[in-house]
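Notebook entry, structure prediction.
Reason for the run: the old model in the group folder had no record of what sequence produced it. Starting over properly, with the input documented here first.
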Amino acid sequence: MRLPRRLEHPRGFALLIVLWSMVLLSLLFARLVSAGRSEAEIAFNLRAAAQRQAQADGLLYSVIFSLLGPGRHWPADGAAHRIRLPAAVASVSIENLDGLINPNTASPALLYALLSRVGADATTARSVSQAMADWRSPDAQGVFEAPQYLSAGLSYTPAGSPFQSIGELGLVLGMTPELLAKLAPHLSLYNGDNPNPDDADPVVRHALRDTGTVGTSGASHPLRVVAVDIVISGAGGTEASRQADVQLQSSSSPTGFQILTWESGGA
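New structure, fully documented this time:
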């Protein structure tokens, strides 16, 4: 079979090469344009996320200074408050942690009362409260120490030091995820004294009453530790958040406050 005459001629092959080259160049150009557009969108989203996070950080410090000042500020009751920002909306909530129980300082009796109040039976409440006390104790003279953990098939033993997070309580012998989920809303690692009953929720107040524990009650009691939760939503679905536990009236800090935890997120 013979090729058409025009393709037999060298000029026909040259024309085909030119046409295919133009097609390839067009595809390459389209690819470059698409990649450039994607990179521009990524850069825009990164810049927007950074702006939202900066807004969240600035708003956190504004809330702290408001709490330290003599003027009016939002109540530390955990309720969400909305603020309109340039091209964004912020949700701010402040929770008073002074009414929560510190598992590092609470007595076994108070821990037992709290466990009972969240629904644990007497046997479970007794063993878990003792195991919590033994976990944080530096000596190995407790009821629930290394041998009990190893015999239960666990690969770890009590830390012998204060809990570093509420989640660490999940490692305590006898603690279950369900029980920890019920306990966690009533616990804080940053309340150094017994809970203030004026700020405590009903579960903690009943636990204090069950044990006769004396809290730092007083209507004029100032805020000591608060949890601040900020979420900022902007155009295009950009979002940033800032969560911080803050100690107010801190004598150890020249600023009058100390940030105890600092967490962020964004999308």
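Summary: Residues 43 and 77 are 39 Å apart (CA to CA).
The old model has been moved to the deprecated folder.
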